[in-house]
Design a protein that fits this description.
With 443 residues, the chain is an alpha/beta fold. It has 3 domains: 5-135, 3-Layer(aba) Sandwich (Rossmann fold), CATH 3.40.50.2300; 149-307, Rossmann fold (3-Layer(aba) Sandwich), CATH 3.40.50.300; 311-438, Helicase, Ruva Protein, domain 3 (Orthogonal Bundle), CATH 1.10.8. 49% of the residues lie in helices and 14% in strands. The chain has 19 helices and 16 strands. The protein has helices at residues 13-25, 36-45, 62-72, 87-96, 108-135, 149-161, 178-187, 206-214, 225-228, 244-256, 282-288, 293-299, 316-331, 340-348, 354-368, 381-384, 396-414, 418-425, 429-438, and strands spanning 5-9, 29-33, 50-54, 56-57, 60-61, 77-82, 100-103, 168-171, 196-200, 233-237, 258-259, 268-269, 273-278, 302-305, 337-338, 373-374. The strands form 5 sheets. A 5-stranded parallel beta sheet has the order 2-1-3-6-7, sandwiched between helices. A 5-stranded parallel beta sheet has the order 9-10-13-8-14. β6 (77-82), α4 and β7 (100-103) form a beta-alpha-beta unit. α2 runs parallel beside α3 (62-72), α13 (316-331) packs across α15 (354-368) and α17 (396-414) crosses α18. It is elongated and about 95 Å long.
């Protein structure tokens, strides 16, 4: 189990030190602050599972601090310390969102008991929230995760394309999940109860590939995918890798609606829909003579571009939740979430391998995670560098400045228009220019 983190906010130095010493001895990771301002500064730099806050503070009160801590990180649970155990104090604390309260002088046994209760409740609460998110996923394209504008637009297009019997070409970088979208097209169409059969066009010798596609009429007779699919869908993954001879046979099957098994003498009717995918520019391959022009036009009638992950960064939190749920179930672990800091790091990474790379990173993180929430240290080491060397310092401010520079530089590369970049960063335009100057970012 990962170390449970606690923030103590208490203005009396002796009480603060005593509580800290006790909790460290019990195995908690403890930070402490003597004022509201100091507590907020610490909370903005690090996520805490629980905060233990005194009601009376020099620059504010524990109830107000509780509300601000929840704004910074809604998953932080708060215990309030009060000198007077009155009904009014308790009601006010609970209304503000406190989990429980402690009465001064704080007894170690009482603190230990209530912390154990809050962590038990927190684990169940996070697990329940995860189940609610899974149940709330839209049903039409339940396997497609995300609600970003590019993804919403693509889903709207898929809903229209699915109703047509036309062949479809999916274009996108490696790892964008092209087969997932192909299955969504099939599932949303009138033939959803028919078969969906997939084949990778670049992983087999030509003869074996053609037997799998068109069937084999020899002694080891097999029907082939085009016949077995009947009125369903055949998905051709990385169609650009098809040999020219196979392309010619596929073109005939599409044009004339019939095909012949390898080594066979009689044709059969082809009724299936073809959905093909590629990470290559097929028109360029036509120009190079490595892709049949007529086949290109037969496949290119309805073309959908699958956006890379860098164009749908807003989907990362939802994707992370979905991957955590899937891998946790598969491994029998109780990992239910990722910390805010982890999500921020994931949203700043480059993701050259797109959704597949993110999936692999979360699978590894679930394996490494000892608690219920994935920490940055659980992520693949090479991911934390975001493609550049980490700062050679233990100073937190220097590290945060390093990550801030990388994140702003990445957003500016993706959105060269500074007004749009400022909007994405949720900064004012003047603030963005000031950051560019302060961090010495080249634009």
């Amino acid at each position: 189990m990962s170390v449970r983190s606690v923030l103590i906010v208490e203005d009396e130095q002796i009480i603060r030190s005593t509580l800290r010493e006790f909790l460290v001895g019990e195995g908690y990771a403890v930070s402490d602050a003597g004022t509201t301002a100091e507590a907020l500064a610490i909370a903005r730099q690090k996520d805490f599972h629980v905060a233990v806050c005194d009601v009376q503070l020099p620059d504010g009160d524990g109830i107000g601090l509780l509300r601000m801590l929840h704004k910074i990180n809604p998953s932080t649970f708060v215990l309030i310390i009060t000198a007077y155990a009155t009904v009014e104090n308790a009601v006010e604390a609970f209304k503000a969102g406190a989990f429980d309260y402690l009465v001064k002088p704080v007894l170690f046994e009482d603190l230990d008991h209530k912390l154990k209760r809050v962590f038990q409740y927190r684990d169940l609460y996070l697990e329940n929230q995860q189940l609610r998110r899974e149940l709330a996923q839209p049903r039409q394209f339940e396997q497609i995760v995300g609600s970003s504008k590019p993804l919403q637009e693509l889903q709207q297009t898929i809903a229209k394309v699915a109703l047509s019997p036309s062949n479809v070409l999916l274009v996108g970088e490696t790892g964008t999940g092209k087969e997932l979208f192909a299955r969504a097209i099939h599932s949303a169409g009138p033939r959803k109860d028919e078969k969906f059969l997939a084949v990778n066009c670049g992983t087999r010798p030509t003869e074996l590939l053609e037997s799998e596609l068109f069937g084999n009429g020899g002694k080891s007779s097999q029907p082939g995918l085009l016949r077995s699919a009947a009125a369903g869908t055949v998905y051709l993954d990385e169609v650009s890798q098809l040999p020219l001879s196979t392309q010619t046979k596929l073109l005939r099957a599409i044009e004339y609606g019939e095909s012949m098994p390898v080594g066979g003498a009689e044709t059969y009717k082809v009724k299936c829909r073809i959905i093909a995918s590629t990470n290559q520019e097929l028109m360029r391959l036509v120009g190079d003579g490595t892709f049949h022009e007529d086949l290109f036009y037969r496949l290119d009638g309805v073309k959908l571009r699958i956006p890379p992950l860098r164009e749908r960064i807003d989907d990362i939190p939802e994707l992370v939740d979905a991957f955590i749920a899937r891998h946790s179930r598969a491994m029998g672990k109780r990992v239910t979430s990722a910390t805010s800091e982890t999500i921020r790091l994931l949203m700043s990474a480059q993701w050259k391998g797109n959704v597949r790379q993110l999936d692999n990173a979360i699978e590894r993180a679930v394996i490494m995670c000892d608690g219920t929430s994935i920490e940055p240290s659980d992520l693949p080491p090479d991911l934390l560098g975001l493609g550049q060397p980490l700062p050679d310092t233990d100073d937190l401010r220097s590290a945060l400045r390093h990550y801030e520079r990388l994140h702003i530089a990445r957003v500016l590369r993706q959105w060269p228009d500074k007004r749009e970049a400022a909007k994405r960063l949720r900064l004012g335009l003047s603030s963005l220019y000031r950051k560019i100057e302060e961090l010495e970012i080249e634009t």
